[in-house]
Structures are given as C-alpha cells and as structure tokens.
Design brief:
51 residues, mainly alpha, 2 strands, globular
Length: 51
Amino acid sequence: MSLADVASYLGKPKSWVYGNWRAQGIPFKKVGTALRCRPQDLDGWLDRKDS
C-alpha cells in the first residue's frame, strides 16, 4: 500500500500519516524514496493499537 492508500484506509490526511509514521510505529518500509506498507502488516499494527 502506498502512503495515500494507508491514509485513506486510516481516514487520516496524507500529511498526518507522513508526519507521524515513525512516532506511531506504522509499519512502512522504504522502497527507494517511497514508503510502502503491506496490508496484513497494517492490520496487525491496528490490532496492536486497539489492545
């Protein structure tokens, strides 16, 4: 998933996701200059955040 996909999935602005991905622990990986996230990793992160 791209940063825009993650922002849409979370219901947050892209600027919030980009500005907070490290502090919030969103499981992005850098691919070149782009941030990418696997859908299953994002779901796992959300499950841990709800606990």
